[in-house]
Amino acid sequence: MQHDQFDVTLEDADLLGEVELTTNLIIAATEADEHLSGEQIDQILGVPPHAD
Predict the structure, then answer these.
(1) How far apart are CA 16 and CA 8, in angstroms?
(2) Handedness of CA 3, 16, 22, 52 (dihedral sign)
């Protein structure tokens, strides 16, 4: 049996996290009636609120 160099399992936790964040933004943008505000985007991405 010959080894297939292209038969690899890739699991990158950082990449999976980025895909999840991107997916969450796409879903939120699709469901929104208007453009998402910067504050809404930060909330979706889990960015802490800015201290003024």
Answers:
(1) 16
(2) negative
**pLDDT (tens place) for every residue of the chain, 52 residues total:** 677 877 777 778 888 899 999 999 999 999 999 999 999 999 999 999 877 6
Helix (H) or strand (E) holding 26: helix 13-31
**Rounded CA gap, 8 and 10, in Å?**
6
Instruction: Give pTM, 2 decimals.
Output: 0.66
Using alpha carbons, select from 11, 14, 20, 8 the residue that is nearest to residue 44: 20
Task: Give the chain's end-to-end CA distance (angstroms, integer).
Answer: 64
